Amino acid sequence: MATYQELKGHRNLKVYQLAYKLAMDIYNTSQRFPKEEKYSLTDQMRRSSRSVAANIAEGFRKRQYPKMFVSKLADADGEAAETQVWLDFARDCEYMSPKLQVELTKGYEEVGRMLGAMMSMPEKFMPRNLRSK
Question: Whole-angstrom Cα distance, residue 93 to residue 90?
Answer without folding.
Answer: 5
